[in-house]
């Protein structure tokens, strides 16, 4: 299936699309797609009167290959527009704050005037975010708290911070730690408007996204499990307004991948089919029902991936799927999934190998490579890493290119703990312990 940028863009709205277009510009192998992504991003910058740091790269690429597409003065005009418009908005905000009356608005006109200035503040913050001036964007949004009738606790205001600060991934830990707390502290949905309530739940989803980007896969699962008991969570996810920062298919994939990475095969299938006896029946039913509903909102190739996880869980077949052009289109074109994908593939491979090692006393590298559908070198490196990091009782035999279990007691507590894990029934394929080891030791 050929990647279609227009179809891809139909799934998103808002200024963050500029970041997605830049990502596609960097990752695509198609010259036409790169030109289209670059020109679309530049036109969006014009629309928002802002200029991203990578605008010069986009202009240079397009003018070198398709000079007729862009005006020669476009880049200069972008900077001029940003400078003039941002200054105008700042002055508008300052003038309002100086003359605004204290106390609650006593007329519809005053109420409308303050609503207008809030929109101005958000517009300026978006312009700064596009320019990757996220600190200034945050300060601009905070300035809304100095308005005479401000309510800094509003969930829409918290959401605005997410939508602006996510232009730079370095802000994710701050967003998780600060604005998640504010979102919960000020939760008062009984009297909140529909817009406020929806913003509250969108921030909950954004927090799952943030934890995924920070590789906190276990937190994604625990938070999702707790949140899904509230039916409003899925209603907001499937609403027409959930497409500015991340869309539904990506969010669903994030939940499923996180669940798989930190669960044993039995735990994963139990969660999906609601068959776990160790979980409260209400929670079990809510999670199972949500997962079944969510999987229907993913691309067909990912649904096949989930089906494979739920049935044979064969790495060779998973590897074939992950290597298909359809799957690569889903991952490579997504700004968030692609950032973690190399690590995710590493974890999946390591856990498959650990599952195999837990059931044998020796393993030939060539045989295991063929079984997994990967190169012998990948298997050799993976097993060597696991042996060192987890202190597994396997030694490499270069004569027949194999790893053999030896009987001496492992010296480290780490090794003893993993020995117990590897030879228990639950270790047949996966565990959150393995996932955490791989995250900390194998991938930057």
TrEMBL record:
It comes from the Eukaryota. This is PCI domain-containing protein.
